[in-house]
Amino acid sequence: MDKRGLSGVIITVLIILISIAAIFIVWQVLKPSLKEAASGVNLNKITVDLELKRYSYQPNNPTPGNYPFNITVIRNPGDGELSLVKVTVENETTSAVYDFDASGLVEMGEKKLTVPSTIANATKVTITPVVKTASGSSEGGIADTYVLRDVPTSSTPTCSPNWQCTSWSPNPCTAGQTQTRTCTDANSCDTTSGKPAESQSCQVSCTPNWQCTSWSVCSGGQQTRTCTDANSCDTTSGKPAESQSCTISVVPTDYFAYWKFDSIFGSTQTVDKKGKNNLSINDWGTNVQYNPASSCVSNTNCFKYKENGDSFVDKASINSASKVYALSFWINPTNFSKQKRNVLSYFYSGGPSLYSGFEVYNQTLWVRGGTDQSDSNSLSAPITNNTWTHIVFNYDANGFGYLYINGALITSKGIYTSSYSNPNAITTGSNWNYFSQYWPAFSGALDELMIYNRTLSTSEIQALYTADYSTM
Asked: Using only C-alpha atoms, what is the Rg of the chain?
């Protein structure tokens, strides 16, 4: 063999070996880098384009609580075996996730998904791929998000509850029982908004029976009273007014006689301001005497009577021929007896059958008249011991007596039946000299006695109650 040809072959072989060795060396150097680079390539990730198609609700048959819509998922080129697509639906307060089988979705393919969303007023839809791996399944990152800015709120179905209730049971019912019923929403709106009550206490029919006190004395242009419901119906329906405007009348000065009991003549008479009906005084200084001015109504003198005393102050033949009259006076009892004690008698020369009298006993003021002077045929009202109390007694032409205490009407009754044609007379304290029986005087004081030949109005009576007697 030619040595020259042999050396060319050897050189060629050596070059080949050197190249192989070089390739091996380069491979060994690059292999770690290539593996690292290869491991950084995630072939499982996909890119999904999302298109939202508005869902049309059935206008005549809304389904509250269900808000489905359609989306189309498009798979772009990329390796990996896609198994699921997760669809997340969100609104401002909540979210929900729905899984869809995507094993048949190939590269460049698309799939229409109907999302059975229960989220009202959705604001965002997100899709996430799930791919198969050697160890199972792996969820990729968010592939695409669609903000539903073009979906108007009006596309969300609205629902107005239509509450329908059964009748109350039991019916009828009695106080203390409970009635129940069942209320359901015919529109099934899945809400309790506006739901009527399903239980209640039994309501028993109640009609108020308003009872009012007398009007108070007029003060500051106003009168008041208290009205209460005797049936306790717990309602103000039909309640009468408890205040009213008023005007105080001027104290009536057309009295027939007026005794202030603040002066006497020679221990025998007390003065009538009219100057013609001075009252005679019996037993002055013993059983009848002055009360200190500071203890009287007008801060001037008044008369004080000793209980059981036979003292009296009287005037026969006052000569008032009127069948209608009014008496006004102040009384301050200092001791209540269990026996009748006379305060004031206004009677007629015809005898006891023509009599009206004021008595005190058992913490009560009594007004009697006629032949029947029993308690059942008399007017009465409680009065307070050691307290000045204003009394007015009206007698009208119909034979009715009206008793006022401290400006307010307390009671009235028809108690007189006799004729009044004879001259009248009046006595305070005991009245033994006009009757066969003896009625001793009460224990206490009298002041400001007036007689009128007419009845007084309510405003006049209140004016007498609030008057300043020191100026009269």
From this structure: 56
Cα–Cα distance for residue pair 168/178, rounded to 1 Å = 10
CA atoms of 124 and 65, how far apart (whole Å)? 18
pTM over 0.85: no
pLDDT of the chain along its 472 residues, tens only?
555 555 777 777 777 777 777 777 776 666 665 554 444 333 333 344 444 444 433 333 446 677 777 777 887 777 777 788 888 888 888 889 998 888 888 877 888 888 888 877 778 888 888 877 767 666 666 667 767 644 444 444 567 889 999 998 888 777 778 889 999 998 888 788 889 999 988 866 778 899 998 887 777 788 899 999 998 887 888 899 999 988 777 888 888 888 888 777 666 667 677 777 667 666 666 677 777 878 888 777 888 877 765 555 555 444 444 567 888 999 988 877 666 777 777 665 544 444 567 888 888 888 877 655 667 778 888 888 889 999 999 888 887 889 999 998 998 888 764 433 444 567 777 664 444 455 677 888 888 888 888 889 988 998 999 888 888 7
The CA-to-CA distance between both ends of the chain, in Å, stands at 178
Q: Is the dihedral of CA 413, 417, 423, 427 positive or negative?
A: negative
Strand ranges inside 11-143, DSSP E = 48-53, 69-75, 81-90, 95-101, 110-115, 124-133, 136-139
Closest by CA to 157, choosing from 186, 183, 187, is 187
Nearest to 343 by CA among 371, 313, 318, 373: 313
Taking the domains of the chain in order of start, what are their residue ranges? 48-155, 160-187+198-204, 207-247, 257-471
Q: In this structure, which amino acid lies at residue 213?
A: T
Q: Using alpha carbons only, what angle is made at residue 30 by residues 26 and 32, rounded to the nearest 5 degrees?
A: 140
Pick from 248, 257, 222, 258: nearest CA to 457: 248
Nearest to 227 by CA among 411, 245, 235: 235
Do 48-155 and 257-471 show the same overall fold? no
Instruction: Round to whole Å and give the CA distance between 70 and 73.
Output: 10
Determine the residue type at 266.
G
Quickly tell me which residue has 């669609």 as its tokens.
146
**Fold annotation for 257-471:** Jelly Rolls (2.60.120)
Residue ranges of the alpha helices (H) in 314-387?
Answer: none
The CATH number of the structural domain formed by 48-155 is 2.60.40.10
Cα 183 from Cα 197, distance rounded (Å)? 8
Q: State how far the Cα of 176 lies from the Cα of 158, in Å rounded to an integer.
A: 42
